[in-house]
Amino acid sequence: MSKLPKAHKFIDLSDYGRPLARLIAMSLKSTSFTPIHVTIAFIISGIIGVICIINGAFWTAALFLILKSVLDAADGELARIKQTPSYTGRYLDSVADIILNGIILIAIWHISNSNIWITALAFIGIQLQGTLYNYYYVILRNKFNGDTTSRVFENETPQALEGEKQSHVNMLFGLYKFLYGSFDKAIYSLDKTASQDRATPNWLMTAISTFGLGFQLLLIAILLVLEQKDYIIPFFVAYSTMIFVFIGIRKLLCSN
Fold first, then answer.
1. What does the pLDDT read at residue 152?
2. Which tens digit of pLDDT belongs to each residue from 174-215?
3. At what angle do helices 242-254 and 166-190 cross, to 10 degrees?
4. This model's pTM is above 0.90
5. Which domains does the chain have, with CATH numbers?
6. For labelling, which of 44, 57, 119, 150 has a CA lying 20 to 30 Å from the CA of 1?
7. From the CB of residue 179, how many other CB atoms can be counted at a distance below 10 Å?
């Protein structure tokens, strides 16, 4: 099931793992495995990747970081195939992502020559990059009748869907707001009219998809196997300047 109608599909450079994710989801369709189980699997994969980074096993680390990205897509695929969307899964996925992002960067800081404060800037940059991409993507999905489990503005605790507990939704939504709230507010303050303006062109969404977590993990994996660990953190700090470039282009092209 596609998240967008055909006319608004774009080449998502962060979603390279989608074909394998669909295969994994299809293989689990008739089993007792749930999307939450797959989310837990990607958390484990990310943790193994971190352990490999710390121990200098960069090829293995790259494998598990990319596997984490694939499984990150597979949980949503399985939810769509089994027709079991849930806010529990949506927020658990996001909370796990941001915590793993921080741990991965700390591991890279540990093995590289980067300064801890530059590492903190890289973390902020990565989160703002991902938030901008998700902001524009969710706007498209909401505008054109795609998947609406994710909301453009996460202001209120959602009502639990069938099969999940409201207490779980409340807890995970609270964690989500605590961890992501400042990033959401920052991106919204930079581009307040995005949800009212014309749709972002497909080619621009493809460019912005380099901010997606899958692409970020792929870049980290490539730089690790190339023995360029000292460039990872500075790269993400520098690439964060593209946030302003992409926002400026979108406003120029799409403002009403």
1. 66
2. 999 999 999 999 999 999 999 899 999 999 999 999 999 999
3. 80
4. yes
5. 6-254 (1.20.120.1760)
6. 44
7. 17
